[in-house]
Amino acid sequence: MSPSPAIMWFRRDLRLSDNPALAAAISTAGSRVICVYIRETNDSLREMGGASKWWLDKSLRSLSADIAALGGRLILRTGDANRELKAIQDETGAQAVFWNRRYDLAGREIDAAIKSDFKAADISVESFNGSVLTEPWTQSTGSGGYYKVYSPYWRAVQANYECPAPAEQPTDLDDPAIDSEALGDWQLHPSRPDWSKGFDPVWTPGEHGAIEKLESFLSGPVNDYGADRNRPDLEDGTSALSPHLAFGEMSPAQIWRATTSRMAAGEVDEKNGRKFLSEVAWRDFSYVLLFHNPDLATENYKSDFDLMPWQDDDALLKAWQTGRTGYPIVDAGMRQLWHTGWMHNRVRMIVASFLTKHLLIHWRRGEDWFWDTLVDADPASNSASWQWTAGSGADAAPYFRIFNPITQGDKFDETGDYVRKWCPELARLPRKYLYQPWEAGPLILREAGITLGKTYPKPIVDHKVGRERALAAYETLKERRDAA
Fold it and tell me: SS3 of 414, please?
């Protein structure tokens, strides 16, 4: 007799290789694995942003094609996950359900309820780690708590992490004779306007795109990673794997295995390889913070910042969102984000510092914008990184550390290619003035075809004034804290 069917519930693990939950389903049911993706409608879950929905559409198409190539079919449903899984179990007679764990509180609570209900009905349920190197509760400090500073956390990971063997990949799947929604009906592309048209030339969502990108990075660029990762003017200074990781098209374990094996073979420089892996572990660290602080996307990690005198200025926020601040490195980053759904990490820090410090706008407004416009919007990394830059987070940059958008541009955009690409109206400006065009004289501006305030905006805030205002706001915070 053939085994009973098993349900594989895909979430942010849209791949067939090295997928622990899928491997367990195969071990249990052979080819009779029912592959399911549910567009959840539970109100407690944060809805995906527009750029993430674009990626999800492409990634599900890729996964569906891979499943179909093995003889199976990806079943799509919309609704409450518990109800939909129960319906699929009833339609198929499945006796087991498998998934990879998620670490946000709302997701964990939903999963716990589903697990409880199925077990009460004598249906087997198992969950696995398919998205982080080490789960948020596995690395403990000497006192038994969780790590709140990254450096000792990374040392602990290096000392304790044992990369598991790759999970088994399916070789054949059956096509379940049940209904599935049509992906096209989900209308996941942004509309009014469709600002995703620039994404296609940049990205190849799906497991195959992830594998190709990792291979390309490890074949050379990784060996300059330590020096090049802060340079937005370089096309391959970073791996750009973040959206693939965010959707689970590649596991962190796969990155770890590929990198360490090439380090052992002498193909990847040890120092640069370790630096690259430390950035993968930084993502894990963000999940530690989210797991232990479920409100990380909405509440200050450091409660002192509840007393911060933020300003609410929609005009300044709009100028920042649209890349019209008058600071070229900031504007280049925000335009890159809108056009490609992604921004270089160094520039993310610069634009976040500018919003929260020069403009004194709450980090939540920036986090919301990134959530909607980033293809790699991640429930842990997005909020943890915004709080880090704002000064309110764990292991955060001190609030008085205020990035100078002029010197940051000059230092890291070494060739000027980044600003010239995303702010083409400044392309003819000599590099001396590229990050502060208001310092160029009338003749130089005229020769470059620039009219400040018309072809390119004047700064919406003076750097010195913005910096002093931010420091004054921090002093106000401290006064309010001491008086409380």
Answer: coil
Residue 333 CB contacts under 8 Å (≥ 6 apart), including other chains: 232, 323, 343, 344, 347, 348, 350, 351, 422
- List, by residue number, the catalytic residues: 279, 282, 310, 345, 363, 386
Q: Where are the alpha helices (DSSP H) in 30-124?
A: 50-69, 81-92, 105-120
For the chain, give the longest Cα–Cα distance: 86
CATH label of the domain that carries residue 274? 1.25.40.80
435 has pLDDT over 90: yes
Contacts of 126 (CB under 8 A, 6+ apart): 21, 24, 96, 97, 98
**What pLDDT is attached to residue 108?**
98
Region for 326 from its dihedrals, namely left if φ exceeds 0, alpha if ψ lies in -120 to 50, beta otherwise: left
Task: Establish if 154 belongs to a structural domain.
Answer: yes
Secondary structure (DSSP) of 336-353: HHHHHS---HHHHHHHHH
Q: Which residues contact 8 (CB under 8 A, 6 or more apart)?
A: 21, 22, 25, 33, 34, 35, 36, 98, 99
1, part of any domain: no
Average pLDDT over residues 91-116: 98
Looking at the fold, whether 25 and 69 belong to one and the same domain comes out as: yes
Q: Which stretches does DSSP call E strand in 267-373? A: none
3-state SS, 83-102, equals: HHHHHHHHHHCCCEEEEECC
Its domain, for residue 473, covers 303-483
Looking up residue 359, the CATH number of its domain turns out to be 1.10.579.10
**Any residues with CB less than 8 A from the CB of 106 and at least 6 apart, and which?**
42, 44, 45, 46
Same domain, 75 and 142: no
Q: What percent of the chain has pLDDT over 70?
A: 100
Asked if residue 418 and residue 281 are part of one domain, the reply reads no
Gap between the Cα atoms of 350 and 334, Å rounded: 10
Return the ∠ at Cα 238 (arms to 237 and 241), rounded to 5°. Answer: 155
Identity of residue 3: P
Residue 279 and residue 307 in one domain? no
What is d(CA 235, CA 401) in angstroms, rounded to the nearest whole number?
Answer: 28
Q: Return d(Cα 2, Cα 4) in angstroms, integer.
A: 7
Could you tell me the pLDDT band of residue 1, with boundaries at 50, 70 and 90?
Answer: low
Indicate if the pLDDT at residue 87 is higher than 70. Answer: yes
